Amino acid sequence: MNTPNSQEGPVETILEFVFYSLFPFTPKNFEPSWLFRNEILHSREVKEVNIIRINEAEVFYSTDIISFNITYDSMSIKTNSSLAYESLLTISKRIVNVLRTDLKPEFNFNIRYHFRHPLQQKVTRNMTKLLIDSFWNGIIDNPLLRGASISKSVQKKEFLWNSDINISICRRPSAKGQLIHVFFNNFLDLDETPIKRKEKDETSIKGKEKDLKRTIGKFIRLDNDLSNVLNRCEEIAIKLTNTYFSDK
Amino acid sequence: MSDIQICDVQTVSRDVNHPHDDEFKFLPKFKWEGVVLAVMESTILGKVYDKSNDITSEVEIDIDIVANHQRYYLKEGTLFNLYSGVEIKSGKESLLFELRKEPFHITSFDDLIDMYSNLDISKNIKST
Fold first, then answer.
1. What angle do CA A143, A146, A151 make, to 5 degrees?
2. DSSP strand E in A46-159: where?
3. I need a surface site. Which of A28, A78, A141, A179 has the fewest CB within 10 A?
4. What global pTM score does this model have?
5. What is the least distance, in Å, from the CA of B98 to any CA of chain A?
6. Are the beta carbons of A172 and B18 separated by less than 8 Å?
7. Phi-psi label, residue B54: left if phi above 0, alpha if psi -120 to 50, beta otherwise
8. Alpha-carbon distance A145 to A82, whole Å?
9. Contact B24/A170, CB-based, under 8 Å?
10. Looking at residues B61-86, what average pLDDT do you find?
């Protein structure tokens, strides 16, 4: 993963993958032993994880550089270093593989980048560059922009990818206005392809067989699809921060 | 990008989880990807790859760097990541050894069935 130049602009501090809509999570099912059962960590490593919180509503634990946070509707895997990107990606692919047992074609896969900029004033000033001044003329004097959101829909050969891309200044007081969030809320529909499928024959055995083969084919390609989405999101996040928040 | 709409999004940060104080113990600054060539009494012989400079080299790693619970899995061919960085609590410069796993390689229906047979996935979806 490329990281923006630390001397001149924002430095990535947290990278987070968040899964929604795989199915309703029961947090307790995802206690650390889950990592072993699904071959994400070895059994002895699992005994050493750092448990932060485990209760009915939330399970939260970490290794030295990767954390797992599971609530009733989401699973988040996070690292404090882009150097752990590959490990995070491998874990994510495993999670998607083992959790998509129902082969549902749609799911949400969100990617969140947290960047820290050394100068708070530059974050505010550069964020405000995204503001359309004329929109507020005569309504509000000297408005400041704290965040912006765009939507993008891409019809790939293999799937439909809808993404909401949000950039905002972190409002947490301890962040001191230096943290920039670049969040991608991705919705993937593996059933939506540009080629119109022939009428499905769901009644015959042959039709059902064909349907199953098609679904499995999509499932098998999922690793590549996820990597493509991740690479594109990373490219956008780096370009965005380098273009608007660096002094290069 | 086409169809761009810009709006104020106060809600964007609504459900963000910021790092908990105890969440991470180590801050990596540099990484090597490695494979174990041999395990000796007090060292490991490994081949490591520095991706950022595209350099491969053979190194001897002190066994003390590997946590006790990880030593059990060391054998020829074990994949690992080696990070240099800072221990967050003490601020001390240090090395971190991480066992590395390869992603599943699913290229056929049989691979898929094998994966599900090997993993105890029923517990993932148990409702209570």
1. 110
2. 50-54, 59-62, 66-70, 74-79, 106-116, 147-155
3. A141
4. 0.79
5. 9
6. yes
7. left
8. 28
9. no
10. 94
> Partners of A169 in the beta sheet?
A180
Following CA atoms A140, A141, A144, A145 in sequence, which dihedral angle do they give, to the nearest 10 degrees? 40
Q: What confidence score (pLDDT) does residue A228 get?
A: 79
Contact list, B6 vs chain A (CB under 8 Å): 130-132, 148-150
State whether residue A228 sits within 8 Å of chain B by CB.
Answer: no
Sequence-separated (6 or more) residues with CB below 8 Å from residue A40: A34, A91, A94, A95, B101
Residue B66 Cα, gap to closest chain A Cα (Å): 12
**Per-residue tokens: A92:** 């994510």
ipTM metric? 0.76
The one-letter amino acid code at A199 reads: E
Are A50 and A62 contacting, i.e. CB atoms less than 8 angstroms apart?
A: yes
Candidates A49, A66, A81, partner chain B, best to mutate (most B CBs within 10 A): A81
Mean pLDDT of A239-246: 81
A150 in contact with B, Cβ within 8 Å: yes
Mean pLDDT of A63-79: 90
B96/A170 CB distance under 8 A:
no
Closest-CA distance of chain A to residue B57, Å: 19
Band (pLDDT 50/70/90 cuts) for residue B6 is very low
* One-letter amino acid for residue B58 of the chain: E
Average pLDDT of the residues in A140-150: 88
CA distances from A40 to A149, A213, B119 (A): 34, 28, 11
A214 touches chain B (CB under 8 A): no
Classify strands A106-116 and A147-155 as parallel, antiparallel or unpaired. Answer: unpaired
Q: Give, in order, the Cα–Cα distances in Å from A164 to each of A37, A91, A225, B119.
A: 34, 24, 18, 34
Mean pLDDT of chain A: 80
**Range in A212-216, A229-233, B90-94 the model is least confident about:** A212-216
Mean pLDDT, rounded, for A224-230: 77
- Going by DSSP bridges, is the β-strand pair B26-39/B43-50 parallel, antiparallel, or unpaired? antiparallel
Q: Report chain B's mean pLDDT, rounded to a whole number.
A: 79
What is the model's pLDDT at position B30? 95
